[in-house]
Write a structure and sequence with these properties.
With 520 residues, this protein is of the alpha/beta class. The protein contains 20 helices and eleven strands.
Length: 520
């Protein structure tokens, strides 16, 4: 299956600004404190998170000791007397109540369901992480499914999984393939027409307001925050709008604050190519296993040959026809661990054999990934409709032809991933525009930014852009890492101790710095 990071992210850039300085929920960004009493005086009824025997998320939350609840929020905060939606949350109380520090909201990115962010801290991604143990002891851990995702009034326009991936993972380099993506975009957008009353209010600003309403209902004067990927943008927006309600903020793999929206991935092609090159370096050291070349450049040449061969003659693997515009999407990497590179290497070798007409058993991981492209079923749990709605509500898209012009202009400089990074999304033909301008991030609140120097999803240049927008923050970069997400992803005393010292003791590093990729 393709990575959640690439499946949920689709595209950005076009900074329409609104606030400058450290916001405190003024009249242009209605704060929870200004809502009618029927919102502020709600009582969240906490209950078992399990809704049935097939509720995997509920089972994980229950096992972590969490309870779940819901609250109502206005669809449009400028019109609190209008329609409302239900927002789903999970909470796990601090186990050391005597030394409790407050509430830590955890967002795992996407955007997507984040109630199970609680389990990330309690259990870790692989069943436990010692760095997070003290955090779980001293904070109430809270996760919230953003509006229109997961259990929070889910928005679903009836898009088939394969149909959506056909545009989200497309890399159209010629007129014919570009026109196919436009036709798909129009079809997808048309099916969201019935939800047009909700679409303008799917923005991150609206989600930040939901978060502040949650703060009120938790009876907290301030909250702390830990977010990954898109969650870094939500954290930055919340800090901008409600800076006096923020305690400690950690942002892992930060997005460029100007990026979220219809062109989110526009500037990622170079970083994505660098991540592929790092895998090629790794694979070259294992030529006896993969047989793609004994040097990084030789492996990259072999990989490039896959796209060239498929452009001449599409291939079929597992009953799925692979065309040239699909190849870049199948070559995305988001992790640089040996285990991930091993699985990815088998997939690349299977593509290579198929492209050259060699008979071989396709890698099961590749077959599973390709099965999604052939899947005509509607899978609301992926949140594709809500993801695009969030992007389209964030910033206005460019004109349809602007995307093709952009792809062609950068074709020579970004031969492998440029078309994928710069491709059109349904936002270009969306039924409605944003309800308000996006948030300009610029304030003096302290925060800890952490990330990888070779992050292919959130390039380090964008991480540094957020650092410049937050002059009182500190930034630690894991050098030589080509992955998306560093905290809890692998042991790093440098990263782990910085996060723990800040969240538990309120102590930021003395300055920006770098971290090595070793536990000690």
């Amino acid at each position: 299956m393709m990575s959640a990071a690439h499946a949920r992210a689709a595209v950005p850039l076009l900074a329409v600004t609104m606030l400058a300085g450290c916001g405190t929920g003024g009249p242009d960004s209605p704060a929870a404190g200004g809502l009618p009493a029927r919102f502020q005086e709600q009582l969240i009824t906490w209950h078992d998170c399990r809704t049935g025997p097939e509720d995997v998320t509920g089972e994980r939350l229950a096992a972590a000791g969490a309870q779940c609840g819901e609250f109502r929020a206005p669809v449009n905060y400028a019109d609190p007397g209008g329609a409302t939606i239900s927002i789903a949350v999970a909470r796990r109380l601090a186990t050391d109540s005597v030394h409790r520090l407050g509430t830590l909201v955890v967002n795992t990115g996407g955007p997507g369901p984040s109630r199970d962010g609680v389990t990330m801290i309690v259990d870790g991604p692989e069943g436990g992480h010692p760095a997070a143990a003290a955090i779980a002891e001293r904070f109430d851990l809270v996760g919230m499914d953003p509006r229109f995702f997961g259990a929070s009034s889910p928005l679903d326009c009836g898009w088939g999984t394969g149909e959506y991936l056909g545009i989200a993972q497309a890399a159209p380099v010629d007129r014919e393939s570009f026109d196919r993506t436009v036709a798909t975009a129009r079809s997808l957008a048309a099916r969201c027409e019935s939800s047009r009353a909700l679409l303008p209010f799917a923005s991150t600003r609206a989600i930040a307001r939901d978060l502040d309403l949650l703060r009120v209902l938790l009876r907290e004067s301030r909250i702390s925050y830990l977010g990954w990927s898109w969650g870094t943008y939500l954290g930055a927006v919340y800090t901008q709008l409600f800076g006096d309600r923020v305690d400690r903020v950690v942002l892992d793999s930060a997005l460029d604050p100007r990026a979220p929206g219809p062109d989110l991935t526009r500037d990622t092609a170079t970083a994505t190519a660098a991540a592929l090159a790092d895998w090629a370096r790794w694979a070259a050291l294992r030529d006896d296993e993969f047989g793609l070349g004994t040097t990084r450049d030789a492996v990259l040449e072999a990989v490039g040959g896959i796209a060239d061969a498929v452009a001449v003659r599409p291939v079929t693997i597992g009953g799925v026809s692979i065309t040239a515009d699909m190849v870049p999407g199948l070559l995305l990497t988001v992790d640089d661990s040996d285990a991930y590179y091993e699985v990815f290497g088998r997939q690349v070798r299977a593509l290579y054999d198929a492209a050259l007409g060699h008979s071989s058993d396709p890698a099961p991981e590749l077959e599973a990934k390709l099965a999604l492209y052939a899947d005509k079923s509607v899978s609301p749990e992926f949140g594709f409709s809500a993801t695009v709605a969030n992007q389209c509500a964030e910033r206005s898209a460019r004109g349809v032809e602007d995307y093709f012009t952009d792809i062609r202009a950068y074709r020579a400089d970004e031969p492998m991933f440029g078309a994928l990074a710069r491709h059109l999304t349904p936002c270009a033909v969306w039924p409605v525009g944003p309800a308000e301008p996006a948030t300009e991030i610029s304030n003096g609140r302290p925060a800890l930014l952490i990330g990888a120097s070779g992050d292919p999803v959130a390039p380090v240049a964008g991480q540094r852009a957020l650092r410049r927008a937050l002059p009182e923050a500190r930034m630690l970069v894991m050098e030589g890492a080509f992955r998306h997400g560093v905290y809890l992803a692998e042991p790093s005393r440098c990263i782990d101790s910085a996060v723990e010292s800040y969240l538990l003791d309120g102590v930021l590093p003395g300055g920006d710095g770098t971290c090595r990729r070793v536990a000690d």
